[in-house]
Amino acid sequence: MKKPLVIGHRGAAAYAPENTMASFQKALTLGAGGIEIDVQMTKDGRLVICHDETVDRTTDGSGAIQALTLKEIQMLDAGSWFSENFRGEKIPVLEELLDFLRGRDILLNIELKNGIVLYRGLEEKVLEALRIYHMEHYTILSSFNHYSLLRLKELNPRIKTGVLYVAGLVEPWEYARRIGADALHPIYYSVLPEIVTGAQVHQMPIYTYTVNEMKDLERIFSLGVAGIITDYPDRGKIAADKVFRKD
What we know:
By secondary structure, the chain is an alpha/beta fold. The protein has nine helices and nine strands. It has one domain: TIM Barrel (Alpha-Beta Barrel). α4 links the parallel β4 and β5. GO terms for molecular function: phosphoric diester hydrolase activity.
């Protein structure tokens, strides 16, 4: 069994304000082999890393990202809601993280947040940023909007894409192949032994989210998934090491 990858969810969201540079740095410190992020687009067409379509929950401001300029967003404090120790953290632009990761052997999982808000040109802009920073081969792009995955493949057939989904899919590897995707990204409680076995037979890796409890981490790692996405990269690493030693 190949040792699975531990991917930090929004960085290390249990230890630092999610989707900030502090969180990404913490994830690497804790041993993550990958980082998962969310990308939205500002009013002036810039790519920012934020899970929600608004800034209300994770900053001291309010409003929809699509209605705010980058300058307005970067004036906000994205850290103190989590802890005073992180006061002054900002919502980063995608390019800031790409520059930070460039030259590192780290998988970057970018979720395109274009399900609630349909950002025109989001796929093109993300692909262009990856091209400029030479990060295409270190990145997998995922989305709950599977039309977006089709668009990505249309623009760049070589880019890796992952199918995000919640409910159980019948033979999900067949669906993924049909839309040209390279991986399955199911929620963790829908990861069953027969799904993992079928995916392995059809050479379709599974990266599941968001797995935080040790018992769940160990169970899912033991099934043979390619990786897990977790708020606790340190727990993920401990669980992966434990299961891998048993092999």
